[in-house]
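From the methods appendix. Each design record in this collection lists the tokenized structure first, followed by the designed amino acid sequence. Records were kept in a plain field format so they could be parsed without special tools. The example shown here is representative of the layout used throughout.

RECORD:
FOLD TOKENS (213 positions):
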């Protein structure tokens, strides 16, 4: 038994060496560059409001994302009118779904509405439409590295959608150390947190005036 093991041992070592060599070659080559790396822009308001408005249901329409940012692949701005996708860096889900879920979860916690829904079969008092108009990492030579997120919001009464009750446009330019995908995503998280905090404050002011009438 020992002799047989010794006889075949060099062959085993050679085979293992070839396998390990192949693995290291694959890990540092084309597969590594094409395998998607997934990211999520996830923000949390934190605590839930202790009191909620009564009979004030908000319907959130799916957040629209302008065409040049609607794909899953992360985008950098590299020129005045030039944007460049950054494969293999991708969002885990479609930006529209991701931003819609973040917006609904945040507003539900504010207490400004009795319920926040995305199902248009549920009777609502208000309808919120929104759009992501900017979502990129700033990588132009003349600009400092930043993560940019820009959104617009439009709220109307459900029974008179043609009459706009509230609208605002918000933008966050978050400074980052270097324009890499990971840094940009962290910047977007901070920027979205700032945008939703401001939106909540704006809504709070609007309904405070409305309730005071």
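DESIGN:
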């Amino acid at each position: 038994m020992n002799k047989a093991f010794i006889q075949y041992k060099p062959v085993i070592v050679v085979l293992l060496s070839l396998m390990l060599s192949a693995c290291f070659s694959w890990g540092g080559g084309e597969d590594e560059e094409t395998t998607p790396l997934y990211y999520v822009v996830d923000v949390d308001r934190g605590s839930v409001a202790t009191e909620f408005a009564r009979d004030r249901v908000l319907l959130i329409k799916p957040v629209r994302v302008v065409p040049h940012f609607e794909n899953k692949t992360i985008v950098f701005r590299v020129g005045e009118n030039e944007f460049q996708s950054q494969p293999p860096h991708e969002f885990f889900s479609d930006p529209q779904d991701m931003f819609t879920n973040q917006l609904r979860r945040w507003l539900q916690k504010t207490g400004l509405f009795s319920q926040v829904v995305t199902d248009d079969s549920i009777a609502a008092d208000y309808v919120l439409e929104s759009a992501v108009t900017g979502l990129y990492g700033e990588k132009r030579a003349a600009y400092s590295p930043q993560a940019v997120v820009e959104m617009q919001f439009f709220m109307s009464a459900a029974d008179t959608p043609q009459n706009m009750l509230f609208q605002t446009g918000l933008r966050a330019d978050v400074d980052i150390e270097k324009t890499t995908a990971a840094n940009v995503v962290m910047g977007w998280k901070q920027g979205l947190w700032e945008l939703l905090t401001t939106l909540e404050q704006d809504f709070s002011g609007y309904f405070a005036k409305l309730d005071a009438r």
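APPENDIX NOTE: The chain has four helices and nine strands.
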